[in-house]
Specification:
The complex is a heterodimer of chains A (254) and B (366). Chain A contains nine helices and ten strands. Chain A has a six-stranded mixed β-sheet with strand order 6-7-8-3-9-10, sandwiched between helices. A four-stranded antiparallel β-sheet of chain A has the order 2-1-4-5, covered by helices on one side. In chain B, 25% of the residues are buried. Chain B has 13 helices and no strands. Classes of the chains: A alpha/beta (254), B mainly alpha (366). At the A-B interface, helix 2, strand 6, helix 3 and helix 5 of A face helix 10 and helix 11 of B.
Chain lengths: 254, 366
C-alpha cells in the first residue's frame, strides 16, 4: 500500500494521473488526469468510443492500464490481487446491462457480497438487503428471479446490490442506456436520491437532465482524452471547446 | 381530453375442436400425408399382430429349462432363468443384498438432490454424490466393512454397467470442469496441458483406451503391484469422460456473458468464489442437454467392456447364449431384453435431466 501522492488533497478519493491505455496498438486512453473529491458527483459524457466507460472501468480495475497512476481511497492500483479485491469492495459499479446473476433470487443477488466477501451472518446480510430493496422501492420482489423483473426494476436491484457492500464510491456505466423511456425515470430517481445523500459518484451517461440536476462537474471526452470539464451550468451554456459545442448541439438539438 | 379505454382481454379463437379436426390437421392434412398415414396403418395392421403373437400369445412364460420352450413364440423362460446373472453377474447370491443396497443408495442420492430443503440441498447433495463411489466400493467389495470380500471377478451384469458409469461420471464431473477451466486459463503451461489432455482423450477410440487400460497400463506400474482390472478400466472411463465433458463445459463457459464475470469482480468476490457461485451454476444450466448426452454415451459405452472380458450385461448374455443347455437360439429375446433395459434407463435419465433443466430455468416470468 502506498500513500497518495504528496500533491493530492487529502479529500481526493480518486486521483488519476497521466493514465494511458492501449488495446494492442490502439491508444484508447490518452493522458487522462482526474481528481475526485469525497462526495463529488461527476458526469462523464462523450460520443461512443471516446473512452468514457474504459476510464471508469479502470477505477475498479475491470480494465488494466499501461501507464500512469491511479489511486483510489489512498490505495495505489497496482497489479496486486489483494489490493484489487479490497478496492473493489469499496467501489460499487452499476452496468449498462444490469448484470444481475440470473440463477439467484433478488435477495440472493444482494446478500452474495455481504455473506461471501464481508463474511456477515446470513440474517444480517438479509436485513441489509431488505433495507436497500426498500430504498429502491421494490422490497416485494425479493424472492423473484431477475428474469421476472422489468429492466428498470433490474437496474434498481443492481444499484441496491452495490449499495449492500457499503461502498465509498459508486461508478455508473451508462445505467439507463438499455432501458425503455418510461423506466429511465425510476432509475434516475434512485440515483438522484443517492447523490443527495452525499455519495461520491461517477456516472457515464447521456441523461443531461440528470447532469444539470445533480452533477458538480461534467466531463466531456472524445478520442480517448478529456476535452473539457466544467460545472454543469457553464458546461451546457458556455462550452469552451468546438468539439464540445458540436456534441451538445447534437444531443440537445432534438 | 379523451380518457384511455383499455380493451378487455378476450380468449384466443379456437380454430379446431374435436377428434376429427385433430385427425384432419395431423394425419390427413394433404393427399401425400393421407397416403403416408394409410400406408403406416396398413403396415402396423400387418406386423403388430405378428409381434404381439410372438411376444405374448405364443410366448413361453413358465418353466425353468430349455424344455419349457414348446410354443413357437418368444421363450421368456430364457430371460427368467438367467435374470440373476443378467443383473448381478456371478455375485454370490447370499451377498446380493449389498448390490441392492448400493442401488438403493444411488436412487436415494438422486432423490435427495431434488427433494431436500433448498437451504441444505446443494451442500448435502454434493457431499453425498462425492461419498457415493467410496461407500459403494466399500459395500460391494466388503473388506473395509469387515464383510466377506467379494472379488471383482465376480461382479457383473447390468448392475456393473450402472456402477461403472455412475462411478466414472461422479469422479469425471469435477475433473472435466477443471480441464475446461484450464483450457481457458491465461497461463500457457496450464492451458497446453489441458488442451493436450482433452484432445488426446477425445481423439482416441474408447475401445483402444480400454485395451490400453487392461493390457498396457500394468506395464507402467512398479513390479509386483497389481492394480485391479476394474479400477484400471474405471480410470480409463474417468479420463475419457472428463475429456468429453471438458468440451461440453467449455461451450457452457462461452455462453456466460462477460458481464457476469465483471459483476462478480465488482462486488469483490475472489476468483474461486466467482467461478463456483456465479459461473459454474450458469455453465451447468446451459450445458445440461449436452451433459446428459455425454452421460448416456458413456453409459452405453460400458457395454464395450465385454471386449476386455469384463462380464457386463452383453458379455453375460453371450455367455448365456452359448450355454450348452440353452442352445435353442434365444438371441432375439436376449438382445431385446438388453435393449429394453438400456432404453428404460436412458429414457429415465432424459426425464430426470428435463426436470433438472426446468428446475434451473429461472428466466421465465411466472
Amino acid at each position: 500500500m502506498t500513500a497518495t501522492n504528496s500533491a493530492a488533497d487529502s479529500q481526493d478519493v480518486i486521483v488519476i494521473e497521466n493514465l494511458n491505455k492501449w488495446y494492442g496498438n490502439f491508444h484508447v486512453l490518452r493522458d487522462i488526469n482526474l481528481r475526485v473529491k469525497k462526495g463529488e458527483r461527476i458526469v462523464i459524457c462523450g460520443p461512443s468510443g471516446s473512452g468514457k466507460s474504459t476510464t471508469i472501468r479502470c477505477i475498479n480495475r475491470l480494465e488494466e492500464f499501461q501507464e500512469g497512476s491511479l489511486v483510489v481511497d489512498g490505495v495505489e492500483m497496482i497489479e496486486d490481487v489483494k489490493n484489487i479485491e479490497k478496492i473493489r469492495r469499496d467501489v460499487g459499479m452499476v452496468f449498462q446491462h444490469f448484470n444481475l446473476f440470473p440463477h439467484l433470487t433478488i435477495l440472493e443477488n444482494l446478500t452474495l457480497g455481504p455473506i461471501w466477501v464481508q463474511k456477515k451472518p446470513k440474517a444480517e446480510a438479509e436485513e441489509i438487503a431488505m433495507k436497500y430493496l426498500e430504498r429502491v422501492k421494490i422490497p416485494d420482489q425479493a424472492d423473484k428471479y431477475p428474469g421476472q423483473l422489468s429492466g428498470g426494476q433490474q437496474q434498481r436491484v443492481a444499484i441496491a446490490r452495490s449499495l449492500c457492500m457499503n461502498p465509498n464510491i459508486m461508478l455508473f456505466d451508462e445505467p439507463t442506456s438499455a432501458l425503455d423511456p418510461e423506466m429511465i425515470k425510476e432509475v434516475l430517481d434512485v440515483m438522484v436520491e443517492l447523490a443527495e445523500e452525499g455519495m461520491t459518484m461517477l456516472c457515464v451517461t447521456h441523461e443531461m437532465g440528470f447532469a444539470k440536476k445533480v452533477a458538480d462537474r461534467v466531463i466531456f471526452m472524445d478520442a480517448g482524452q478529456i476535452v473539457e470539464e466544467n460545472e454543469p451550468n457553464e458546461f451546457f451554456n458556455n462550452p469552451q471547446n468546438e468539439r464540445t459545442k458540436l456534441f451538445l448541439s447534437q444531443i440537445l438539438g432534438h | 381530453m379523451k380518457e384511455f379505454q383499455p380493451i378487455a382481454a378476450r380468449p384466443a379463437p379456437i380454430k379446431t375442436v374435436g377428434f376429427t379436426a385433430w385427425l384432419r390437421d395431423n394425419l390427413f392434412s394433404s393427399i401425400p400425408n393421407s397416403v403416408v398415414t394409410l400406408s403406416v396403418i396398413a403396415l402396423l395392421a400387418y406386423y403388430l399382430p405378428l409381434i404381439f403373437d410372438w411376444a405374448f400369445w405364443s410366448a413361453n412364460f413358465t418353466g425353468t429349462t430349455e424344455d419349457a420352450c414348446v410354443k413357437e413364440g418368444a421363450c421368456w423362460v430364457f430371460i427368467n432363468a438367467w435374470s440373476y446373472q443378467f443383473f448381478y453377474g456371478t455375485y454370490p447370491v447370499e451377498e446380493v443384498w449389498r448390490i441392492n443396497l448400493t442401488l438403493v443408495l444411488l436412487v436415494m442420492v438422486i432423490a435427495a438432490s431434488f427433494t431436500l430443503p433448498k437451504s441444505i440441498r446443494l451442500k448435502a447433495s454434493i457431499t453425498s454424490w462425492l461419498l457415493l463411489p467410496i461407500v459403494g466400493i466399500a459395500i460391494l467389495d466388503g473388506r473395509w466393512l469387515g464383510l466377506e470380500v467379494v472379488s471383482t471377478d465376480l461382479w457383473g451384469g447390468f448392475t456393473l454397467n450402472v456402477f461403472m458409469a455412475a462411478a466414472s461420471i461422479i469422479v469425471a464431473f469435477p475433473f472435466s470442469f477443471l480441464w475446461a477451466l484450464g483450457r481457458r486459463s491465461e497461463m500457457p503451461f496450464i492451458r497446453s496441458v489441458s488442451v493436450i489432455f482433452i484432445e488426446f482423450f477425445r481423439g482416441v477410440p474408447v475401445l483402444s483406451l480400454f485395451f490400453m487400460g487392461s493390457v498396457m497400463l500394468p506395464l507402467f506400474f512398479a513390479e509386483g503391484t497389481n492394480v485391479d482390472k476394474l479400477i484400471r478400466v474405471w480410470l480409463v472411463l474417468i479420463f475419457f469422460m472428463s475429456g468429453y465433458m471438458a468440451e461440453v463445459f467449455r461451450g457452457g463457459f462461452q455462453a456466460v456473458p462477460s458481464g457476469q464475470y465483471e459483476a462478480a469482480d465488482s462486488i469483490g468476490l475472489s476468483y474461486w468464489q466467482k467461478i463456483l457461485l456465479i459461473i459454474l451454476p450458469q455453465v451447468i444450466k446451459v450445458s445440461m442437454p449436452n451433459i446428459l448426452a455425454t452421460f448416456v454415451m458413456l453409459f452405453k459405452n460400458t457395454t464395450f467392456l465385454l471386449i476386455i472380458g469384463i462380464p457386463e450385461v452383453v458379455q453375460t448374455l453371450q455367455t448365456a447364449l452359448s450355454n450348452s443347455y440353452w442352445l435353442g437360439g434365444h438371441a432375439l429375446e436376449g438382445y431385446l431384453f438388453v435393449f429394453l433395459v438400456f432404453w428404460g434407463s436412458c429414457f429415465s435419465m432424459s426425464v430426470l435431466a428435463r426436470r433438472i433443466e426446468r428446475q434451473m430455468n429461472t428466466d421465465k416470468r411466472d
